[in-house]
Amino acid sequence: MGKAEILQQVRDAEAKIRALTKSAEEKRKQLQAEGKRKALEIAEKAEAEVNAKNDARMSAARTDIERRKKAQLEEGAKRASALKSAARSKMASAKNYVVSEFERAVDA
Description:
Layout: H1 3-107
């Protein structure tokens, strides 16, 4: 084997190494990009799940608040009605008292 043949073999080997290195680098970049894409998909999915859970919790809280509000308004309306009824029942006796006091003051 002559020098030229050995030199050619070395060049061929170097070319193969460069090709393999280039191929490996491209594969690395491809795998890295795929990993980033998958990580982004996982993060987006997790965010969507969290948002869905938060929306459900907010909806449940709003429903609970609305239920409590309605119950308090109904209780307030019942109390107001009871107060009106009590006031009406006392109006006649209050009217009689005022009239009797007025008559007593006039007679005095």
